[in-house]
Amino acid sequence: KNDNKQGVVASSVLDAPLLQLEPFIQRQVAVLLGYKQLQARVMRPNKGSSRSVYNDRFVVKVPHCGTFISFTVVYNAMHPDVAPDVVLATERQQIVELDEIESLANWRGDDVRALLAVVMEIRVVVQRKYERTVATLQDERVQFEYQTIADTRDVEFMVNLARDSEHDVLFGKGLGGGGGAGSGSDSDSDSDSDDDRKQNKQDARKRAGWVRFLIPLKLSDEVTALLMGRPSSTDDSGSAAVSAAAIAKNPSLLCRLDVAFDTTATLTRPAIGGRSASLPRLQLRTPNDLIPMLQGLQLPAWNQHTCLIEYIPEAQKRLSEELRRSFQARARRQQLVEALRKRFGSVTEFDSENYSFVAFVFMVAKKKEPVIVKILVPLSYPARHPTVIIQSLHHVDERRLPYERTLAKHPDYDVAGSYKQHVAQIRSMVDVHTEDFVQGFR
To answer: With CB atoms 3.0 to 4.6 Å apart as the test, which of 57, 223, 247, 398 could cross-link to 219 if both were Cys?
Structure first.
């Protein structure tokens, strides 16, 4: 019974290539992927022998400090209960000895959580080694910043001192450059093309000599409660968004500040104790589904007098305020969309998470011909007016696309007006313009 139950769990967690793993290995991988707090990824499963029926080796990637700890796990499909070999990427081997991974040395072949234990321990060991490196680094500015945040819970560290490392991961795209603040998401490309590897190596050389801190940002209690009430979703990479339970357990892990100090830059700006240092690179890292809520966020600027102990509280304040405004805006959009659904009926689709659009079938009274009416609600509603689009159900243009017309803003639209007034204006526009729209096909 237990084996059957574990098989069902594996089928619900794994995709098709991973289901070709040897059954016991498959269950261990399912347990690893099912532990959402770790957010591990398993990629590129393959066979050790062309004669083998099952896949028995794969790559594991675990998020760490805005990038990934990556290593290959090699089982033997003929003896799946035997401890696998673990092959770390080159720069990880320089700081981690596999002999010190106790869960690997004391492998229990009958435990489906054995792989999870190994992966979690490798991540902890890598994190501790990086922190010890940062703590002993001969850089006055880095030491000053480290001492001020060392006791902060769940801070992650990463050091890249090699000038030719090709394993350092690219920074995510930010909203701002230089010393300003940007917003990115924890993402990673699965591409292994020669061009990608070449570009990664070139970019890594440009970034050699960076020390990175990934610092949790504490949100206000009000915003945390609002986030816990949000529906769960899936991000662009296919991994589950952070659940309400995970937020409740540690809400500070939802949004984190990625700070990178260049330890090899030309000394151009005054810093601690009369020395000079370049400004750090800053990024805000959040789950993908929160990025639309933070489009208006302006994090504090960093200048030569700024330090993390002063910067973090202001960043937390601005982040909480922007999320609170976004939730208020979402509530206004929800009022509008729900009122439009009731007013028009015959809804074909609508955005039930962000309330950014609604579409319905509308019967043109005099012509007795149905059309599709789409209403796009901007995130900044009511500061920006909704867009109304009429689309034909029966007529197409030369590109074989349905004819459509985008209506201009209602002349009496008022930003300060109520959502009920806006619904009435939209209805009057639809009544007038659909008649004219359909008439053009007769």
So the answer is: 223
